[in-house]
């Protein structure tokens, strides 16, 4: 009945590996999870090793402009209007796009989940204070807030991460708070209190692990949105420097040539789509692996 | 006589609701001796669980707990700091909840859940700071070689779980209901408590498991010398398990005494009604007897006996505030009843109905009520009021005192 948990006690350098093994086992049994893992790993590797793997300098205008993709040519994915190799630009672009996408959501998630845990657990005026502040953020369109933050702190990758991530705090805070409100009514909360655990321990040991499933789902959905948000900011000239390739800025720049050179905007678009799909599948696999309650239903 | 383990006097718990003030526990007094099994029996909503939660200070902010005294091993539980209270919870007093399906955290292995309590209350020399616990939970896991884990496995074995090493690494949903309740018992034992509060520990289990679990609780409490406060609505369970029992109705203790006294010689009409409604195998009755009527509304509860509207014996004193009467000749323990029929001046016929209420009865009652309200007003500080209330302890006021106060009528 519990073959998945027979690996108990596995530790490498004292770090528990049971969760990793659960994940590996889930992926092994699930084709969709495999696809997700392959896509995410591939893209992350391409982004991390872009300087080593990219065939050309993404800034070098070495080729004839607007060459169509052709696998046999020197530039298999074609060139942009300045004669730069699109494959290299896409690989470098992955660094910013994935970095901003994951970084912004991570920032939003950590802040929002903390707020939601505290607000939901303590309730009362703490809840009112925190959640009403979050509501205030909701009253403004995220783009306005992002523009404000970027204009205060200036352009740059980190500022874009904060600016985009800021808009996601409220999503995570609200979801987490909702989960905590229902978990707080469970008897095991009272039981945890009745064995003498303190508030901090109850919040982070007992409550938080029970809120993880919806947070993971929200995380994967928002990574996609964050990549598009970065594209929007770049398109408005508020993202990273205009010459730096990101998938969003490539897509935006290619828009002017969409009738002559479809590939400049279509290819980054397709990459964004595949990444989003991959991250969603990856997230589902994570959720399945760590939701111990679903084990028996198989 | 040594001091009782838990000494609760005049515990009153109320909740502020939109409709008014709800009195969930009304001026109850009880003592639990070391090694004793004390039962609180009553129907749902009578305030049994709130009593337990009040003693443990586990009610949320909506509830107000007042008491003359809640003493545990000489410590006043209502005035100690929250951090001291945390070390008492689980370490000195632990609880077993009603539903084992929901009282274990679904995402923690049962071994971790028990080991955690062992670390907090036992002397196993493992760090329990916030960051150590975080690291243990998210990075390293509780090491199976650690003393807290081994103690957890031992405890699982103690409560009769087969293959404890393997079971310790499983999650609650992988165990049956009875097994889970055993895990909860193991968790309750983990801090070596002196008192276990079992709040309807078998209500969610089927009857065949019920006996096993009750036996487990009783045997372990006997083995380790732990007192048990057993909350239940099942008179059969009470009779099997308890030494003394309190019958609770509409937030008040109606009758308290040794289990044999209560079952063989019930003095309160409510207790009689409860006992009469137990079905018996030899029963020839076609219908089970029931107590007519419903429990009174606890919001803005009027003073007087809460049972009077359903009581066959109700008479004119029943809307006066209740006082405690001690039953003479009870064999083993003090047997107290809160029913004015026990007033020595009230004349009761053979069927238990009141024949006449002479003036002395009213006077005696008013004398008692006055003594108690004086004690309440002083909050037990005044030495004379305190001493008289204690010496009183449920005994009847002297006739001389009654005569003095004979003409004193009115405020109630």
UniProtKB/TrEMBL annotation, chain A:
Pfam families: BPD_transp_1, OppC_N. Its main location: membrane. CDD domains: TM_PBP2. It is a multi-pass membrane protein. Residues 94-283 form the ABC transmembrane type-1 domain. The chain crosses the membrane at residues 35-54, 96-122, 142-169, 260-283. It is found in: Cell membrane. Keywords: Cell membrane, Membrane, Transmembrane, Transmembrane helix, Transport. One of its GO terms (cellular component) is plasma membrane. Belongs to the binding-protein-dependent transport system permease family. PANTHER family: D,D-DIPEPTIDE TRANSPORT SYSTEM PERMEASE PROTEIN DDPC-RELATED, OLIGOPEPTIDE TRANSPORT SYSTEM PERMEASE PROTEIN APPC. This is ABC transporter permease. It comes from Halorubrum glutamatedens.
From TrEMBL, chain B:
It is found in: Cell membrane. It catalyses: Ni(2+)(out) + ATP + H2O = Ni(2+)(in) + ADP + phosphate + H(+). It is an enzyme of class 7 (translocase). Residues 366-412 are annotated as: Disordered. Residues 366-378 have a biased composition (Basic and acidic residues). Residues 6-275 form the ABC transporter domain. The keyword Electron transport does not apply. Pfam families: ABC_tran, oligo_HPY. One of its GO terms (cellular component) is plasma membrane. It is a peripheral membrane protein. GO terms for molecular function: ABC-type nickel transporter activity; ATP binding. Keywords: ATP-binding, Cell membrane, Ion transport, Membrane, Nucleotide-binding, Translocase, Transport. Its EC number is 7.2.2.11. The keyword Transmembrane does not apply. The complex is composed of two ATP-binding proteins (NikD and NikE), two transmembrane proteins (NikB and NikC) and a solute-binding protein (NikA). NCBIfam families: oligo_HPY. This is Nickel import system ATP-binding protein NikD. It comes from Halorubrum glutamatedens.
